[in-house]
Every structure is written in C-alpha cells, then in structure tokens.
Predict the 3D structure of the following.
Amino acid sequence: MSANPTSDITLVDAGRLAVLQEMRRDPTVWVLGEDVGRGGLWGQYRGLLDEFGPERIVSTPISESTIMGAGLGAALVGTRPIIEMRMFDFVMCAMDELVNQIAKVRYMFGGQAKPAVVVRMPHGMWRNSAAQHSQMLEAWFAHLPGVVVVCPSNAEDEAGLLVSAIRSDDPVLFFDPKDLWTAPGQITDGEIAPIPFGKARHARKGDALTIVTWSAVTPNVLTAADQLARDGINVDVFDLRTIWPWDQDAVAASLARTKRLLVVHEAVEVGGFGAEIIATMIDRLGPAAIKVAKRLGAPRIPVPFAPPLENEVRITRLSAPCPGDSATSPRGHRGAAQGNE
Amino acid sequence: MATPGGAPAPAGDNLRRLTDLYRMMVRIRTFEETALEAYKLGEIPGPLHVSFGQEAIPAGVCASLRQDDRLTSNHRGHGHALAKGADAATMYLELYGRDGGYCRGKGGSMHIADFSVGMLGANGVVAGGLAIAVGAAQGLKLLKSDAIAVCMFGDGATNRGPFLEALNWAAIYTLPVLFVCEDNGVAAHTETRTVTAGDGPAARANAIGVPAVTIDGNDAVTVDETVARLVADVRAGRGPRMIHAMTDRWSGHTATDAAAWRDPKKVEAAKTRCPIARLKSVLIERGLAPAVLEEIGTAARNEMHAGRAAANAAPWPSVPSAYDDVQSVGAVSGGR
Ligand SMILES: Cc1ncc(C[n+]2csc(CCOP(=O)(O)OP(=O)(O)O)c2C)c(N)n1
C-alpha cells in the first residue's frame, strides 16, 4: 500500500481518468466506438468529447467489424487507438479483425507491424442481461498468441492497467468488469502510475491455501477469505490482474508453501483458464508438491435470464437477490454507470 | 394478427381489417405501458426496450402474414411478437422470468420467441436477424413451401455488414423475404443520420437489387396496403422486397434511459404523430362507433393487467431447469 493520499472513486471513473491522463500526455491516443461521444454506454468516456473533440473521441456507426479493423489500421500508421466494443458479446461481430488480423499482423509480417491497440470489452453478468449480454470468454484469448489479456477487479487496477495498456505496443484486450463499474474503490492521488502486466496483486496473506482469481468475482473471493480469517484460517489470495501474461512465479512460490490451490473464475469451468493454471503449477512444482488443486467456475451452460437461474451460474449467490424476493435493495451497483442497453 | 392458415381479410379500405389493425396497435401499446409500469416497480429484471410510437409497423406488417410465415425480430420486439400472434400472458411470464414463460425464463424481454406462430425470436445482437431470415427463406424455398420470411430491424442495423450480405444473398437466390426497416431515426444514444452516409436504407437496398420503398410508418393504412402488395410479390416468387418505414421512438433506448440528450421539442413533435391516434380518427371518420373503440381499449387493459398480475404471482422456474436445453449430447446437469 502506498503512503500517498488516496481518493474514493468508482471503477468506471478510475478508467476514465486513466484515459484522460493518457490522452493529455499523448496526442496520438484516441477512442473509437458507438456512443463514445455521448460518454460511452457506461459513462467511461464522460466529458472527454468536450476536451478532445470529435476527431479523438469518435462516435461510430454500429459497425463492429470496422470499429475493430479501423482501429488496427490506425495503429499501423502510428496512432494509439482505444477500440471501445461496448460489451464483450459484440466482439463476436469483429472476430476476424481481432483474431485473424490484430493478433497476427506483427508476427506474420515479420515484425514490421506494431498493432498498438487497446480493445476495451466490458464483460460478465450484469443485471440479468441473459445469454447474449453476459459472456465471459477471456480464456479464449489467453489461448490466442499475440495479445495481452487484462482482467482488472478494482478501481486502482483498472486505472493503472489501462495506462499500461495504452502505452503498450502489443494489442491489449482489456476486460472491464461490468458488474463492478460502480463498486466503490480508491485511487492514489496524482499521476496514475502504470501497473505492469503479469504482476499479480497479493490481496490476502496466509499459509492454509493459495487462491488465484481475477475480474468481477475477486471481491467475493476476498469476502470469503476474510470470513475464513475470522475462523482462524488464513489463505493466500492472488488477484492475477492479467491472465496473459500471468504471474506464475508468485503463484508457484505461494503454492510451494501452502500445497493447496484453488482457482476461482466466473467463466465456465470447463476449458477455463483455471485448468491452465493448475497444469502449469503441476509442471513447475511436480505433482508430489501439491496436495490438492481445484477449480471453481460456472457450469457449462449459457447465462440464463431469470434471477434464480442466473444465480445458478454465478459462483456466489450473495450478490443477487431476486426482484420481489424481499425488500432488499436492487441487486448490482446502480450508481453512476449508465449502461442503458 | 397473423391468421392460422388461410388468407387474411383483404387490405385497404376495409373497416373490419382496419379495426383489427387498431386493436393490435392498442394491445401492443398497452402491453408495453403495463410492462414499463411493472419494470419501474422492480417487478421485471433485465433490459426492457419499448416501442411507443412504432406500433403501426408490426401491426401493419403482420396483417398480411400467415401463421406459417416466419419472422425474425430485434431487441425492440414486443410488438413483433404480439402482432405475429404470440400470447401476451405468456410474454409477461417471460418478461418476469417466471415458470411457463415463452423461453422458460432463459431469455426475458429481449429474447421472446414463439415458434408455434412463426416468431423465430427477438435478438440481442443488432442485425442478428438478417442472415437468419434469409436462411429461413432459403429453407422454406427448399421445402417448396409458399410461406415467406420477414425480417424486422432498425435503422441502426443498416450500418452493419450483415445488412449488405443478407440483402445481396436474398437477391441472388431470389428468396421470399420481406425486409422491414423500422427507421425511428435513433440508434441507442445516437441520431442515426449522423453516422450514416448516402441516401439511407431504401437507396442502399435498391442499389443492391432489392426493390425498396420508403413509407410513412406511422400511418397504419399505408403500412398495411404497402405490405399487402409487397407480400404478394414475395409470395409469388418475385424475390425479396424491402420496406423502409419512417417512424419515431418516443422513449429512451431502454426503460432506464432518460435520453436526456434528445431535443424535447422533437420528442414532443413525434408524439403528435401517434399512429394509434391517427388510425383512430380514420376509424371515426369511417363511422366506427366510439363505443367500439372504447371497448378495444378496455379489453386491452384487462388483458394486459391480468397477464401482468398472473406473471407477478407465478413461481420461478425450478433451479435445475437452468441445465435444460443446452444440448443433447454432452450436457451437464445441476449440482456441478
Ligand atoms: C452488434 C451489436 N452492436 C451494438 C449493440 C448495442 N445496441 C443495442 S440496440 C442498439 C441500437 C439499435 O438501433 P436500431 O437498430 O436503429 O434499433 P432501435 O433501438 O432504434 O429500435 C445498439 C447499438 C448490439 N446489441 N449489437
């Protein structure tokens, strides 16, 4: 923890400040995507049009493949586009541009190309949005050579990782956690420092168990760790922040001590990135060094709409009371983020 | 409105048909007003897109369709489903995410489907229905059916690649598709004209080789007459056609969107072009008794209030049903 003063901030605003800082610093940084001139679907670009004008905050047609492809083209001539995809699910409309083009140009052209794009793709479950607006497929992209995969879980990391992403010469796929947009957080005052890729946040310390997690489920994991701590069981928790590259050294060092590993991700467990983490640790430490290794992820079903069914996909039931179930406040964080989809 | 088999009443100057159109439009409006009210009370989860001001289009389009004609819809699809013949009470159950809803609580407002009346589904992906409609038409042709496919989409969808691909496809294979572009001038939080080059959807369609007409989509009589003519062409095997229906979106993009960026004067002006009020004055002019109009309104309110109340009291789907209908081979079951 830094000794510098901090301010309260939501994750969406932390990201916005990071973009603002980098756009002020580097005139080649710009944003393209639907409704970004209106502040973006989630308010993540609120106010930026006023400062930077419509040439750098570019509201586009609903043309996902061209949003993605034009971002690449603009990077190839030396600008640094932030490609805003509105919601991860719409990336499917631009898969050629992402997978066959952005992820390939540097290698395929023998290192001549510098695809310095950030693709922002807010993902995950959010207010019962059903199967086409809730997906978490970050593991697909860890499987894709040529890209960095970032999955922040809090305001400070959102800002610091976004600064790194914008400055990176690699294509960075940035999975904003929709469910945490308005979660309260803190950010260190002053210039936002870049957070390096591949460096996990050691969020809780203990010897009983190593838990590895990332993105929107992280707060739930920390709540569970704190509950355990009250029972006298202290666990090591790593928020990976980026799943490619990922902090193998930190996890291996912890696991060598605890000999117990649990990977928690909100995405489907089958074929998820948890499997990769466990396999890597077995390779590094040897099977005899690990007493138990488990994954906790969603069942292999699409995300359903009805609250009790959606809860079955969430790996916690805590955060989602059903409408009409009780007088509890509406689920999710309904603060400033717009999200009128 | 789509008739189960058989030919619908002839279009145009026909009091019974116009009354049916009116009834359908009032049902759509009342369905959505009731849903919005419930939404604001927190009874309905998820996103909700209403279509106040656009009712003449689904009603007018489906008046010329048969039940075995297929229709693909978009995210603003309540009117499309109702007009194609879906049952309001079953729709409410789905909006509420309850047992017995059209999609068994898997879909919600944005994914209403009723395959039994040819409604192949609302879609959460803009332009997602275009290729599906074209394929449905190709399949129907292969099956030697004289049913047709109808594709409802917004102006915003015309800037996505599938618009070009689907229209070209329909034209080269002379497929029985009616494309219906509901042009309400806005796409989410953007005025579509600010991100659209050229002369718009009809010009694009004509350039691709799909004959298109632009009409006043707030005039139910015009919509009905135009659709009747074009459906006859499409059904006769003369290839795809497109209707570009100009209309208005009175509301925000979703039930939670205040759309504060829009010029309130323009929104107020749009409300003066209300398709329901307009058809009502036509009906009165043609001598329909005001009591009949009253009755239509009352019946719609009763129907929708009953549907809403039943949905609000209905049980949730059972949790194990979350695992149903994923796939046949290799499905997982509950309990993980
Ligand atoms: C491929 C894709 N991109 C973006 C979105 C987000 N989105 C949902 S509706 C909408 C606007 C669609 O406008 P239009 O097709 O004109 O229909 P309208 O909402 O006006 O009825 C947008 C951008 C989406 N659902 N799918």
Chain A has two domains: 10-188, 201-313.
